[in-house]
Each structure stands twice: as C-alpha cells, then as structure tokens.
From TrEMBL:
Name listed for the protein in its UniProt record: Alpha-ketoacid dehydrogenase subunit beta
Domain of life: Bacteria
Name of a matching Pfam family: Transket_pyr
GO molecular function, one term: oxidoreductase activity
Co-factor requirement: thiamine diphosphate
SMART domains, per the entry: Transket_pyr (SM00861)
Source organism (scientific name): Streptomyces triticirhizae
Gene3D superfamilies listed in its UniProt record: 3.40.50.920, 3.40.50.970
Entry-linked InterPro entries: THDP-binding, Transketo_C/PFOR_II, Transketolase-like_Pyr-bd, Transketolase_C
Ranges for domain Transketolase-like pyrimidine-binding: 6-181
Alphabetically ordered keywords of this record: Oxidoreductase, Thiamine pyrophosphate
Amino acid sequence: MTAEKLSFSRALNAALRSSLESDPKTLVMGEDVGKLGGVFRITDGLQKDFGEERVIDTPLAESGIIGTAIGLALRGYRPVAEIQFDGFVFPAYDQIVTQLAKMHARALGKIKLPVVIRIPYGGGIGAVEHHSESPEALFTHVAGLKLVTPSNPSDGYWMLRQAIECDDPVIFLEPKGRYWEKGEVDPEGIPDALHTARVVRPGTDLTVVAYGPTVRTALQAAKAAEEEGRSLEVVDLRSLSPIDFDTVQRSVERTGRLVVVHEAPVFQGVGAEVAARITERCFYHLEAPVLRVGGFHAPYPPARLEDEYLPGLDRLLDGVDRALAY
C-alpha cells in the first residue's frame, strides 16, 4: 500500500481497520459505532466488514462501556472503546480512574489491560453543551493511564495503531475540529515512538509548544511572525502522559523563550506542568518567563461565543509578543 492523502477521520478509520485485520482479539465498541458508523463516521463500514461481534453497538451507558471493556481486556481481548463526545466521559470517570488505571499496580504487574478509549475532544464545531470540552488534565493526573493526542492524519493513523498494540490503558484524544483536514498517510512508513514530541517547524527566537487542535494555530502563528522577522519553533507534544520534556528542553535551550498553548483552561492545565518543568530544567537559558495561552476558567460557552473562548491566532501572537518583549 502506498501513501495517500486522507482526511483525519479516514486515517483513523484506516487504523482501526488495519488493527481489526491484524489481530482477531481487537474489538471496537461504543454508542452508534456499528450500523451508523459513528457520529463522525470514524467507524464507517467496520461492522459491515467485521461483524457485530467485533464492532459492537453498545447501550447509551458510558460506565457500562468502560466496565465491559475492562472485562474483555481481562479475558485477553484488545477493546477500543469510543466515548461519543468529550463531555460524555464523566459517567465513566470512576471506572477509568479507580479500575482501569489501577488494575496493573493492584495485581503487582500480573494483569495487563490493553484498553484504548477514543475521545473526540475540543471545540470548533459549533456544538451544544458537553460536546466541546477539553478534559485532558483530569486524566494526566491519574497514574496508570497513558494519554496521547495526534494533530494530523499521519499521526492519527500511526498513533492509534500504536495505542491499540500497547499493553497499557491509553486514552486517545482526537481533535474533532480537525477531522476534515487532509494529509499524507503512509501505512508502510516508520512512525515515531508513541510518546515522543516532535519539532514540526524549526525556529530560533521562541518555542511554541502545542498539541492536538492547537498545533495548526501554532504553525499559523509562526508563519505570521515570520513576516515580522521573528522565528518561532513549533513543538507538537503528541503525548500528554508521559510528556517528552527532553525534546521541549532542547528547543528552549536553543530559543530561550517558551509559550505553551492549548484549548483547555489555562488554570491547572497541561501547560502549567510544562511551564513548571521547563522553568526547573532551563532556568539559566530562559530570557523571559514561560507564558501560557488557553481557554478561560469558565464552562464552555454557547456556539456563537466559542471563537472568543478558544485561543486563536491573535491571542497566541499576543503571548508571543509579551514573551519577546523581555
């Protein structure tokens, strides 16, 4: 199979299809993932080709979905459970943090739980309440969970396949506002390790760290800054637990400045951990305080206000200006 240009959603579909083909123990389960093909059509055609016993339409019960996935994993399966929207995950929160995340340690390493939980997250689609949230920080604080988020179709394909092959529970966050963007996907390529960050644009004056939906915003900011004679380096974090601090550190040692951007609220967000760690590691290299740009500490607003809530190009460039002013 040669490289082809796929939308983010089709790349994820291809990854699920490849995993189902390569391992008969892989299962896909969730609300409307079968006959409908998922509300975003990520699982389109999979039940038709692999049957109802491997692509399973579940009741509308997130706690039951994750509880069932845990039981299947204990019996040797590799379930890929879909939570239909980010804000729907909270009924399953207890199962995730008290059972799924703890079982390996509780069993002194004798039990593995290779469960992937796919969660579309973030804004930009004009949805109603509980459909546009960014709950990543709630899960990164939980030991025993891995958490990754691709920002482009190629990473979507490879990172989902790698997550399914992992013997540990992985929360796989999909930036739903990017589902329709297209990019080259090479199923025969060699992917980066699942938990490594990547410099997606080199620069010399300031590092911008982003992940998921804000990587494109960071690249837009770098292009705009270039027109003013400023050189921004953009790092795609890719993994939120664990975090590849070494890649970020090397970048900041080169540039001397760091701005972290994410859609989630700035208060107690992932950016706070990145800022603290890099301040500790790069204190003598920093030419300015590490700055954070993100959502407000408020419930996600109605659709007509989300452009004001989300950290867009102007808000990120304002952070860049403040960092470069030191």
